[in-house]
Amino acid sequence: MKKSLPSYQTTHPYWKQYQGFFPEEVRLGEHTVPEEEWWESNGVNMHIDRLPAPESSLKILFIHGAGGNGRLLAPYARMLQRHGYEVVSPDLPPYGLSYVMSGTRINYELWIELLVSLIEREHKKDGKPIVVLGSSIGGMLAYHTSARSKHVKGLIATTFVDTSNQEMRDQLAPNRLVSRAGKRMMDMFPALLDHVRISVKQVSRMQLITNNKDLTRLIMNDPQAAATRIPLELLRTFLNKKPEVSPEQFNQCPVLLVHPDLDPMTPIRFSQSFFDRLVVDKECVILEGAGHFPIEQPGLNQLEVAVLRFLQQIQ
Fold first, then answer.
1. What distance in Å separates the CA atoms of residue 68 and residue 72, rounded to the nearest whole number?
2. What is the CATH number of the domain that holds 73?
3. What is the pLDDT of residues 219-273, one digit of tens each?
C-alpha cells in the first residue's frame, strides 16, 4: 500500500472504539484485522476491506448503508470469515476512506456502477460466485446491484428501503418538510443544489441507527461514517431511484431478509411490503430483540445461523 494513502490501521483508528459492542469472538484484534486494498474505478479511488478465506467456495460482497463504511461492519464480516467465507467490504464514497478523483460526481448511480464493476473484478479473479449482503439502505443497493450482475447467486438484506415509495421516504426523513418540500427543492434546482454538502444526520433519523445510546453516539460522531458530509446529488438520486427490475420480475437469485425485530428507523412493515412481492425462492428471518444495527441477542445469533444456512444452500 502506498504510504500516502489513508489506512484504518495507521491513520484512521476510530473503528477500534466499536469493538467492545460485539461478542469477543468476532471483535477485530491484532491478528484479525481485514486486509486493506485500493482500487481505481469509475473515477473513484476505492478503499476495500478484505477478510480472506482461500478455500471459500464463494465470496460475499458486504454493502454498507448511509452513515456507515466497510470497517464499521467488519465484526459481522469476521463472523462469516470464521466459518470459512471470504468477505469483501468496500467504502462507498464519500464514506470511509474512499475518495473521488477530480470531476467525478457522487450520486446513487455511481454507487451501483462501482458495485457491479467490483463484482466483475472479483469474479474475474477466480470465477467464484458472489453473494451480496446489504445492511440498512445497503439492502436495496444490493438488490439494484443484483439486478445488473449475472454473477450474483444470492442476495441477503437487513432491510429493503424502496425510496420509490413516498411513505418510505417519509419514514427515513426527520419530518415531512424534509421528505416532501426538501425533495421537491432538490428536484427543481439540481444545478444549484447538487454540489451542496450536508451531514446525513440533518436529513435522516440517524439517532435511531442503533438501540444503544453509546454506540449511536459513536457512529454519529464518526468522521468516516455518519459525520461525513454528502453532496445533495447523492441524496436526490437515492430518493428518486426506482427499481430497474420490479420484484415481481426479479429472477436473478434467491433472497434472504434478516430483519431486526426492534427497528424504529426502518420498521419491518416497509421491508415486508417489498419482500412479499418477490417471486424467487425467499426467506424472512426476524432478529429477536435486535435494533437497526443488530448487536443484541438472541437476534445476533439468529443472524449468524440464518446467513450461514442460506450460504450453505447456495453452495
1. 6
2. 3.40.50.1820
3. 999 999 999 999 999 999 999 999 999 999 999 999 999 999 999 999 999 999 9
Our measurement of the distance from residue 46's CA atom to the centroid of its chain's CA atoms, rounded to an integer in Å, reads 15
Phi and psi, residue 256, nearest 5°: -120, 125
With a CB cutoff of 8 Å and minimum separation 6, the contacts of 163 are 140, 169, 172, 238, 239, 240, 241
User: CA 289 to CA 275: how far, in whole Å?
Assistant: 21
Number of domains in the chain: 1
Q: Tens of pLDDT along 159-214?
A: 999 999 999 999 999 999 999 999 999 999 999 999 999 999 999 999 999 999 99
**Is residue 243 domain-resident?**
yes
CA 271 to chain CA centroid, Å, is 15
- With respect to residue 9, please indicate whether it lies within any of the assigned structural domains: no
